[in-house]
Every structure is written in structure tokens, then in C-alpha cells.
Amino acid sequence: MIEKLIANIEKTKAPIVVGLDPMLSYIPEYITEKAFEEYGETLEGAAEAVWQYNKGIIDEIYDVAPAVKPQIAMYEQFGIPGLKVFEKTVAYCKEKGMVVIGDIKRGDIGSTSAAYANAHIGKIHVGSKSIVPFGEDIVTVNPYLGSDGVNPFLKVCKEENKGVFILVKTSNPSSGEFQDRIIDGRPLYEWVAEKVNEWGQDLCKGDYCEVGAVAGATYPEVGKTLRKLMPKSYILVPGYGAQGGKGKDLVHFFNPDGLGAIVNSSRGIITAYKQAGYEEFSDKDFGAAARKAVKVMQEDIAGALGWL
Amino acid sequence: MIEKLIANIEKTKAPIVVGLDPMLSYIPEYITEKAFEEYGETLEGAAEAVWQYNKGIIDEIYDVAPAVKPQIAMYEQFGIPGLKVFEKTVAYCKEKGMVVIGDIKRGDIGSTSAAYANAHIGKIHVGSKSIVPFGEDIVTVNPYLGSDGVNPFLKVCKEENKGVFILVKTSNPSSGEFQDRIIDGRPLYEWVAEKVNEWGQDLCKGDYCEVGAVAGATYPEVGKTLRKLMPKSYILVPGYGAQGGKGKDLVHFFNPDGLGAIVNSSRGIITAYKQAGYEEFSDKDFGAAARKAVKVMQEDIAGALGWL
């Protein structure tokens, strides 16, 4: 899957992933009103609004952004109807040729991680049939349980040509509480990064491996160290825009080949139509506004990398 | 919710939680065959088999076990139909008076953790309505992201009278890879335990708080230390039976009042009908076998605690 991700990035010249993390408050009222008219003020109604919103964005960005990252919590909050829209969103983005990174942050003991891996990037055997439950291309994984919790994902990556991003240094303000604690002279996140490098060794394809890392744009100085510890891992960098970072702060997350990182923006893109600088777009044009926001972000990052 | 959990434990004299973690291979063939006849070899068929199996167990154990812990991964692996059965299982166990611990191990940045907390132990606002998506009583939470990732769960615990168990020292063989690393002279899991104690301070009801910890039975020596660090936290102890521990190894997880811990068994109970010592039970009697396994476990643990 890393080869497809890189090919998509090179085609769009955009090392960018769009976070499809819809809150009801982000969605134009005419969409929620119509959904509530049809389904009532129910989980089904909320989920329908989310779907229409997602579709409107995807239709406008699929040729300029290489990948999307739906955050499953934003769908899980609407129960079963929400998760149906998660599934539909994954399928729709794949149809459009985008790489889908399921931001699920799962991780558990071995047999349980195996169930999560099958659910999200693999297949499940039912009688004589093999069925794909959610069908993402790549998922995020929490490393707290150690190799046991990660290995079942690696096994499925190998069998199904899929990928994972392991949480290393997250973008939130309190990420340092445990992740920065010093162990034998180095912060915990560096030890996790070393494991990420190790976990990827059997899953390399060309210059990069199927095992990447999550490291927040909010900590740009971290980029340099991680690049050295995991030269063949892609780094998924959340926290661009709304959470802080800008293109020039992010160059250290990339390798000298200009590859090796993909920067996520969620609110900055999907709610662009509400933001300063996007007054030309009405709420009917939220998709077109998102497209412009992708292009602005692309110019910022590709410019900082000297790609333009 | 901790008060209800303790009341249920005292009523049953069983500090026990039954892990409802169904694999298709656990389920008697006559159940899966019937489900496949009706729904085909589909996710719906698998989910129906899981539901019939769960129901058969719950109907036999609800008056002898105070709580259940459905592991959501085992449902998520069957996609949307599986998650519908998760929801149905949660509701059915609550109807029967049991406390339901959703073993979800979620945890993310603040706004995302808030969505998970609403999804599982809270409510979601849709227009003018408040809707309960999954409705567990308590959930497990991963601490890797620090306080930011936990606080939204605490907020919902306070508002909705619910509880959480934070992963501290997990039961799997590689749990030590990061959790045992030494930080200022003490393993990481002890630093997490200190936080658990702190996170619980505003959520205490009587002698215990709504913020508990997960610590594996496979590491009995850990119990003593954790009891001191978190005197008012319940400890959820997985790894009994199939994974190793026995009643006498577990006494250190309890406080001198005989409370403070609840021990989980999954396979040991739900697949009892297949095990040595349960030959009197045919596959039609898997529920009755589970009931006997709960009683055997209850005698082992209550005996070790001097409750008998």
C-alpha cells in the first residue's frame, strides 16, 4: 500500500491527507435540515448529513489529494448508522482512487489485535467465505501493549498488501506526559520509533516500508530525530493548520528525497467554507472551498520542500 | 457506576467479570449452522450465531456474575452486523441487571476522545434530541496520549454516573516492552497508576472512585504495588484461567476490605462446555457449563479472599 500512497503523492505533488472528521456543527444547515426531514433527529439523520457532507468534499478533492483519513470516532459517535457511513466513506474514497487511512488507534493483546486487523485491513472467515468488513488501506495503531499488539496488524499487512501508522509522538498538548518521559537517556517516543523501524524491516518495498509512524506537526523539532531513527518509515503528521504547524516547520519530517511524510489537515480543509479568506464560497460551495484549501496547503508544503 | 458494580459483587459474592469475547470457533456447530441457513455465510450469519451464543450464556450467568466485559474487537471483526450484536448484547446484559464493561481500549486527542466517550458511555446531541449510541456502563481506555485523551471520558463519567478502567499493566507477554521501562527509578506503568489515582480524585463515591485500572493476573507481584499507588481504584484483572493466574495469586490485587478488584475470565467461562472437567455438558448445554465455570471461579477467588 505504501507504493500506492507514494504514487498518489507524486501524481498530485501533494504530501497531504485530508482528515474526514465531521462534526454536526461543521455541516451546512441546509444539509442537516434535509437529512433530519427525511430521517428525523435520529442517529440515521445525523449519519445521512455526515454522508452528504463527506460526499460533497470527496467529489471535489479526489484528484488533488492523494489520501483521506477518516477518524472513526467521529462516526462511532453516531452509533451503527454512523459506522455505516464510515464504511460507505471508505468504499467511496477507494472507488475514487484515494488511499484510505482509517484513524482507528486500536491496539490490544494478540488475539484481539488480530480481530481488529481483520476488521479494518483484512478479511474474516465465515464458513467457507472470506469477507472484507471495513476495508481501509492503512490504519493507525496504538503501541502501548508492545509487539504482541502490533504483530497481528503486520501479519495482515503482509498478506493483504496494507499498511499501518504506529502512534509515536501525538499532536495533543499532554502527549508528553508519558511519551516524553526519559528512559535510558531518551524519551519514550524514541524507543517506540526504534520499534517502528524494526517492525517495518520485513515489510519494505523500495525505499519505504508498510510500517509508518504518527508524529505531530506541533512538535517540529521531533521530526529530525525521528527521520534518523526510522529512515524507511513514512511519518503521518497531524496538527497542520488548526492545531498549529505550517509548511516550513515540517520539512524535517521529510527525507532528502522529498518523500517520507504525509501531512494531515482536517478542520482546515473540511470547514474551509466557514473560514477567513474563503468568503467567496457560500455554504453551498463547501466542497469547492475544501478543494481550494487543499491547493493552498499543497502550495505551502510543496513550496517549503522546493517541489514547486 | 462503581457503587452498582460493588453492590453486584457483594450480592453475588463474586468479584468476577465474564468476558464475552466470542470467536466463531467457540460456538457450537448447531448454532452456526442454523444461523448460516437463515442468513447465509455472511457477516449477518456470523453475527446471528454470536448473538445466540451470547444470549445462551447470559441467560445462565446473569444471577451469579455481577458484570460482563464484551471485547468490541470480537464484534467489530464482523463489521456492521457484528457491532449491532455488540449493541444488543450491551442492552440485554443491562436489562438483566449486570454491569457492562465495554472493552474498547479507545484513547485519542481531546475532541476525538470526547466523541468516543459520547459514543460508549454518554449521549450524542442530534438537533434537539439526546441519543445514547452504545450505552455501556464502563469502558477501558488507553493512556498513551496522556490526560488530554482521558479527561473527556472523566467528564462523561461525572455527568452520566459512569466509569472507566485505564490500561496500566496489560496481561500480554510483551506488555513490558514499554510499560516496564524504567523512568526515574520506576516502571512506566507505575507512573500511569499514579495518574489513575489522580484522575479519580474528583470521582470518588464512598471508598472507591469511578476511575479504575487494568492490570494483568499474569503479573501478580504487580498487584501489591498498584494497590498502594491507587488505594481507591478498582483493578480489572484479565488473564485468569486460560492466560495463567489462579485465585491465590490474585489476593494482592484486592484491598484489606476484600474489595478493590474484579477478575475477568473469557474463554475459561464461555467455552467451558469444551473443556476437561465439563464432560457432563453437551454442546447444547454451553450456557449451563458457563454457569458452572463461573461458580468454580467464584469459589476459587472468594475462597482465596476468605469470603466463604
SSE string of chain A, helices as H and strands as E:
HEHHEHHEHEEEHEHEEHEEEHEEHH
- Distance between the first and last residues' Cα of chain A: 26 Å
Side by side, the strands of the main sheet of chain A go: 1-2-3-6-7-12-13-14
Determine the oligomeric state from the structure. Answer: homodimer
Largest interface: A-B, 70 and 70 residues
Structure description:
Two copies of one chain form a homodimer. With 308 residues, chain A is of the alpha/beta class. Chain A has twelve helices and 14 strands. In chain A, the strands form four sheets. The first copy, chain A, has an eight-stranded parallel beta barrel, surrounded by seven helices. Chain A has a two-stranded antiparallel ribbon with strand order 4-5. A two-stranded antiparallel sheet of chain A has the order 8-9. In chain A, a hairpin with a 2-residue loop joins β10 and β11. In chain A, α3 runs parallel beside α5, α3 packs across α12 and α6 packs parallel to α7. The longest helix of chain A is centred in the first third of the chain and has 19 residues. Chain A is globular, with a radius of gyration of 19 Å. The first copy, chain A, starts with a helix and ends with a helix. At the A-B interface, α3, α4, α5, α6 and β4 of A face α3, α4, α5, α6 and β4 of B.
